[in-house]
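To: structure desk
From: M.T.
Subject: fold request, one chain
Message: Could you run this one when you get a chance? Sequence is below, nothing fancy, just the single chain.
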Amino acid sequence: MRPAVVIDRSLLTGPLWHPGTGAQPSYPAAVQAIGWVVFGTAMMLVVLHRTAAKVYLNALEARDGHRDPGASWLLHRDPDPTIERLRRRRLLLLIPAAVLTIAGVVLLGFAPR
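Reply: Done. Structure tokens follow.
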């Protein structure tokens, strides 16, 4: 019985690309499409983060009289449970937005043109 798919053994054992032996392989076109989806998702999260940040800063201003939480808002909890909930919502939108923005730029930057 003959196998359904025959793969050349050299494809399985040899290097896919070696510097200096020819053109560097490019990403498939699907990577660019994935990059646009990732980048678009990141931009939606950025808009949601902006809205969450406004609500958080308004609550902070109503309590303390200022809108500047400083850099410590990323790491330190707020004693007020309502403002802490708003801080966590903002943080849960900020981190994925930042990661997806970077991933989208990388995917789009290395995709074929």
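Reply (cont.): The CA atoms of residues 51 and 90 lie 9 Å apart. Let me know if you need anything else for the meeting.
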